[in-house]
Amino acid sequence: MSGRYGRALTVVATVGSGLMAGVFFAFSTFVMTALGRLPDRQGLSAMQEINDAAPTPWFMLPLFGVALVCVVLALLGLRRLNERPSKFLLVGSALYLVGIVVTIAYHVPKNDDFGLVNPNSPGAPQAWDDYRTPWTAWNHVRTLAFLGAAILFTVALVVYRRSREQSTTDGVAEPIVAAELTRSGVSQ
Fold first, then answer.
1. What is the pLDDT confidence band of residue 188, given thresholds at 50, 70 and 90?
2. Which string of DSSP letters, residue by residue, matches 140-174?
3. Is the Cβ–Cβ distance between 140 and 26 less than 8 Å?
4. How far apart are CA 99 and CA 146, in angstroms?
5. CB within 10 Å: which end of the chain, N or C, has fewer?
6. How many CB atoms lie within 10 A of CB 68?
7. What is the pLDDT of residues 7-22, one digit of tens each?
């Protein structure tokens, strides 16, 4: 993670992961619960509207932009495995990408199929029940993946800063301590 670019990318990944964790946390903790309290046809229609409204640049750019940043951070981490923050960058990137895979492999196809359900059809209430519970369970998975990534990227930044402070202190402290010992008459 050495260099300004590595640290800047880690900050971007930290903020972006936290943002995505927050979005999906809202769905896991209260949005799906609120939609489930509505009459079935209303809850189904509301979720279809949410799914239609979600793919905007304001949502997609952070979601997939951070995924690209994670790929770069993973490559940087692999190139610098000897640096302390690298393992945190690698695992954080992997977690974020797990959240992306869950989104692409599960949520997108599920949402697309769900969008085809006619809210006024006789099978709509059952379709809503069949959709809501597993969708929410898998949403918990991606929420935890994004949250875990944000935490690990934060740890990487802290570890980097501490190791940098320690190396700066180590390089400066030795001559100062040696000079103090010499002045006090203590042999080294």
1. low
2. HHHHHHHHHHHHHHHHHHHHHHHHHHHHHHHHHHH
3. no
4. 6
5. C
6. 11
7. 999 999 999 999 999 9
